[in-house]
Specification:
single chain; 556 residues; alpha/beta; TIM Barrel; Chondroitinase Ac, Chain A, domain 3; 2 domains; 10-stranded antiparallel beta sheet; 23 strands; globular
Length: 556
C-alpha cells in the first residue's frame, strides 16, 4: 500500500488555509517539476479542420471504448477475467471509475495502489484509460465520498430541500466540500503524472459523474438562498451578451421573455420558475467543477470533460438530475467552467440522433462516454464518428458484453479504418446515415439522400432481396468517406445505396471489397455482378459490418 503523506500534507497546507468563506476562490498548487519524471507529449486536443481530435503520442487517436460498471474496478482480481472479452470486442480504451473514498480513506492519507494496479493492467492488455473521477457527485448523489466526509455534515454540508430536509448530495455552496474534493483530485492527477507521464496510458479524465439536483430544482440551504438573492454573476451576463445569437434556444427564450436585462437578480433576469432555479444551480455546479479541474490541470493537464444524464420529454427541473451539463444549459457551463474542454452526453434513450445533434452545437466536440446496450449500439457508434467527427464512443457496462457481440464487428472495422477516418475528420468529406429513432422507439425508416463530392447517395435502411420484417433498421448505419474525385469508401451494415448526380446519371465503375492494413488498402473481391445487382447499387450485409471501395462515373 502506497501512502502519500508528504504530498497530501503539502497540498493541505497550500490549499487548506484561508478558504473558510464560500466566496473565496481556491488557490491551486503546482507540483515541483523537478520531482516529475521526463514525460512524453501529454495527450491533448487539437483542431483538425472543423473537428476536434484527441492526440496521443503525437498522433490523432480515435477512442473505441467501453465503460466499466461502477463496482468492477474496485476489485482488480475480479476485473482480470474480462480483459480477453475487451480484446475480442476490439476495444482500445477502457473508461474506469476512480473513487474518492478508495484513494483517501483517511483525510490527508492517499492510497493509490488501486489506481496503479488499474494502469498496469491496462498497459499489460494494450488498452488506454479514461479515468472517471467519482468525487463529490456520482449520478447526483454523494455516495463515493470518503466516510470522514459523509459523517461530518457540519463541516461538509449537504444540499437541502425547501423544508430543510437534507439530501445525499454535497452542497456546491460549501468551500469545505469543494476544497476537500479539489485537494484529492489534484493529488490524483499529480500521482498519475508521476506514474504514467511517460507511457500515457491515461489519456483523458472525466470530472465528477452525472451531476444534478433531485428531487428539488435547487439547493435550499441558507448559503444557497443567500446566493440566489444576489445578482446574476457579471461573468455569466457578459457571456450571454457576447453570445446572444448562439445561445441554446431555451435559455435565450427565458432571457428574452424577461426583457433581456444586462444585470439583475436571477428571477428578474430569467423569470420566476424552476428553470431559473436550474440556471442558478448550473452556474454553481460549473464554478465548483471548474475549481477542481483547474487544480487537476495544474498538476497534469490532460483533456477533461463533464458528462450529463439526459432528460425525458416534458419533465421539469427537479424531476430529473437538474443543472448538469445538459444542452439547454451548455452556455452556462461553458461560461462557468472554462477549464472543462467539452461536455458529453450519456445516451441511453433511443433518440440518439437527436442528442448527438444537440451536443455538437457551437463547436462542442462530441464524445459519448456512456451508451446504452442493444441492437442499435454499434450503429450509433458508426453514426457518431462518421457524422459528427466524434472523439470516440463507449457503451456502458462493457464487461457484460459477449465476445461475439456485433459491437466487436463494428469496432474491428472502425479500428482499421481509423487512420482514414482521422485523416478526413473536419474536412467535409465524410458523412454518416442511420434511421432516426424517436424517444418512444418509433423508427423513421424512410429513405434518405446525402450529397458528397458531386454525387447524391440514396440510402435505403433495408437490404434488397430480403423481407423487411426480417430486418431491423435500427441496427443499420453507414459512413461514406470521399477518397478522390469519384472514389468513396462506404462502410457499415444493412444498407442499400444507389447513386445519381444533379445533371445526369451516376454509374458504378467498380466496387471492391477489402480492408486497410497499416494504412494501405488491400483489395478483396470485386463486386461487379450479383453482389451489386449488375452495377445498380452497393449493398452492405446486415450480418456484420463491412467496407467497400466504390468508383463512380457519370453519363447521360
Amino acid at each position: 500500500m502506497r501512502i502519500y503523506l508528504a504530498l497530501s500534507f503539502c497540498l493541505f497546507m497550500l490549499l487548506g488555509c484561508g478558504l473558510q468563506s464560500e466566496n473565496v476562490s481556491p488557490e491551486i498548487s503546482v507540483p515541483d517539476e523537478a520531482s516529475i519524471p521526463h514525460e512524453a507529449s501529454i495527450p491533448h486536443l487539437r483542431a483538425h479542420g472543423t473537428a476536434t481530435q484527441l492526440v496521443v503520442h503525437d498522433k490523432p487517436f480515435l477512442i473505441l471504448g467501453g465503460e466499466l460498471g461502477n463496482s468492477t474496478v474496485s476489485d482488480l482480481g475480479y476485473l482480470e477475467q474480462y480483459w480477453p472479452v475487451f480484446e475480442a470486442l476490439h476495444l482500445n480504451t477502457i473508461l474506469a471509475p476512480v473513487s474518492w473514498e478508495l484513494i483517501e480513506p483517511v483525510e490527508g492519507q492517499f492510497d493509490f495502489s488501486s489506481v496503479d494496479g488499474l494502469i498496469e493492467a491496462a498497459r499489460a492488455h494494450n488498452q488506454k484509460l479514461v479515468i472517471l473521477w467519482f468525487g463529490s457527485w456520482k449520478n447526483s448523489m454523494s455516495s463515493y465520498v470518503p466516510a470522514w466526509v459523509k459523517r461530518d455534515q457540519s463541516r461538509f454540508p449537504r444540499a437541502q430541500k425547501p423544508d430543510g430536509t437534507g439530501l445525499e448530495i454535497l452542497s456546491p455552496f460549501s468551500a469545505e466540500n469543494r476544497d476537500a474534493d479539489m485537494r484529492a483530485f489534484q493529488a490524483l492527477m499529480t500521482h498519475i503524472r508521476g506514474f504514467d507521464g511517460q507511457q500515457n496510458t491515461v489519456i483523458m479524465v472525466q470530472v465528477e459523474n452525472e451531476i444534478g439536483m433531485i428531487p428539488s430544482a435547487r439547493d435550499h440551504r441558507a448559503a444557497a438562498n443567500a446566493r440566489f438573492a444576489q445578482d446574476v454573476p457579471a461573468e455569466l451576463m457578459a457571456y450571454l451578451e457576447g453570445h446572444t445569437e448562439m445561445l441554446a434556444p431555451e435559455l435565450r427564450q427565458h432571457w428574452n421573455a424577461n426583457g433581456r436585462l444586462s444585470q439583475g437578480k436571477w428571477e428578474h433576469v430569467f423569470g420566476r420558475s424552476v428553470w431559473t432555479e436550474e440556471y442558478f444551480m448550473a452556474w454553481q455546479f460549473a464554478r465548483y467543477v471548474d475549481a477542481i479541474a483547474s487544480a487537476g490541470k495544474a498538476a497534469y493537464p490532460l483533456p477533461m470533460f463533464v458528462n450529463a444524464a439526459l432528460v425525458r420529454p416534458g419533465v421539469l427541473p427537479g424531476a430529473y438530475p437538474s443543472a448538469g451539463p445538459l444542452p439547454h444549459l451548455i452556455d452556462i457551463w461553458r461560461a462557468g467552467a472554462p477549464s472543462i474542454d467539452f461536455l458529453s452526453p450519456d445516451i441511453y434513450f433511443p433518440n440518439f440522433v437527436h442528442w448527438t445533434s444537440r451536443y455538437t452545437q457551437e463547436g462542442n466536440p462530441l464524445f459519448v462516454p456512456e451508451a446504452g446496450p442493444g441492437p442499435a449500439t454499434p450503429a450509433n457508434g458508426f453514426y457518431a464518428i462518421g457524422q459528427h467527427d466524434a472523439i470516440g464512443f463507449s457503451p456502458f457496462a462493457i464487461e457484460q458484453y459477449k465476445r461475439d457481440d456485433r459491437l466487436g464487428s463494428a469496432y474491428s472495422l472502425l479500428s482499421y479504418l481509423a487512420p482514414v477516418i482521422l485523416e478526413h475528420q473536419g474536412d467535409g468529406r465524410m458523412v454518416a446515415v442511420r434511421a432516426p429513432i424517436a424517444f418512444d422507439g418509433t423508427i423513421d425508416d424512410a429513405p434518405q439522400s446525402v450529397s458528397l463530392g458531386g454525387y447524391d447517395f440514396h440510402v435505403s435502411f433495408y437490404q434488397r432481396f430480403r423481407a423487411k420484417d426480417q430486418q431491423n433498421p435500427a441496427a443499420h448505419a453507414a459512413m461514406i468517406i470521399q477518397l478522390g474525385p469519384e472514389e468513396f469508401l462506404i462502410a457499415g451494415s444493412g444498407l442499400t445505396i444507389t447513386f445519381s448526380t444533379p445533371g445526369g446519371i451516376a454509374g458504378i465503375e467498380s466496387i471492391w471489397e477489402g480492408r486497410y492494413e497499416d494504412g494501405v488498402w488491400q483489395r478483396g473481391r470485386l463486386f461487379n455482378g450479383d453482389a451489386s445487382h449488375q452495377g445498380r447499387h452497393v449493398r452492405l450485409s446486415s450480418e456484420d459490418f463491412s467496407v467497400q471501395r466504390v468508383k463512380l462515373y457519370t453519363y447521360k
